[in-house]
Amino acid sequence: MVDSSGSERGGWLGRGRGKVILCGEHAVVYGHPALAAAVTLGTEVRLRAETGPTRVLEARADPRLEAALSVLLPAEGLGVEIDSTLPVGRGMGSSAALCVALARAELARQGRRPSPGEVADLALAGDRAFHGNPSGVDTTVSAMGGVLRFQRGAEPRALPGPRGWRLVVLDSGVAGHTGALVAQVAAARPGVDPHLARLGALSDLAAANLDDLGVIGEIFNEAHARLRAVGVSTPALDHLADFARTHGAVGAKLSGAGGGGVVIAAVADSGDLLRAASEAGLTAFACDIAAPEPP
Ligand code: MEV
Question: Pick the residue with more confidence: 199 or 294?
Fold first, then answer.
């Protein structure tokens, strides 16, 4: 990984973290709190001076990427290299990480050393090209690192990383479409509002009990049930959450927009679950929470 605000001969570098939402996805769109954690997986971008229109150097067929570039970078004169360890479309914040990395690299090119908050603000403008009207939780936690309580209109609050338990990610292998799922939840309101309010309350309960695996496990399980009631889970995600619970996880929930993507499981020790997942032919990996970015 490169210095998050670094520049060097031959280009300008930027890095963005991936994320998992520990609680409060979808609820956060409507002003409820969410609890999110940056992960050590992420995206690096290198900008190179080039002649002609700004473009991604390797072929990528996503028109939303072109739209994000047009928001974050000058129209002319840059080649963009992208290197990512994040699964795409799995609710782990790949577009936010990309936009944070692009924003950091562009600000480095301008000779600036922005705060994580400034990076997050710029990156959010780029992430709108991907997801319409994101709440900002993904870009904020990607830029700031660590664990954050995020609520629209309030200062994000950094929390110490959890002790005594860890996360295992189980990947459904299916991409979810955040914009479409957010629209689906909007159409299901006001019927789903009590679930969204409860998810917000659970985020604050989780923030207050981050080191308590038993409480976190219960919160994950209730959050998953609420998200299913909101309509964003799938049979595959329900199966992965059940699988995790029957193989050592204290709690498990879908993380991100749903409709596909990943389940996160809270475990005291990842060994049993990872072994069982491997034997069952499932894609699963232990996932470390990233340290906060320096101010
Ligand atoms: C996506 O990671 C989280 C959602 O709440 C959307 C958003 O906050 O913009 C589903």
Answer: 199
DSSP-assigned states of every residue in 43-107 = EEEEEEEEEEE-EESS----HHHHHHHHHHS-SEEEEEEEEE-SPTTSSS-HHHHHHHHHHHHHH
Atom in ligand 1 nearest the alpha carbon of residue 26: 5
127 lines ligand 1 (CB under 6 A): no
Packing angle of the helix pair 235-246, 213-230 (nearest 10 deg): 160
Res 68: pLDDT: 94
218 lines ligand 1 (CB under 6 A): no
CA distance 95 to 114: 20
Q: What angle do CA 258, 259, 260 make, to 5 degrees?
A: 85
Q: How does strand 76-84 pair with strand 55-56?
A: parallel
pLDDT of 4 > 50? The answer is no
**Is 127 designated active site?**
no
Task: Say what the pTM is.
Answer: 0.95
Ligand 1 atom nearest to 257, measured from its CA: 10
pLDDT at 161 over 60: yes
Alpha carbon distance 121, 155 (integer Å):
12
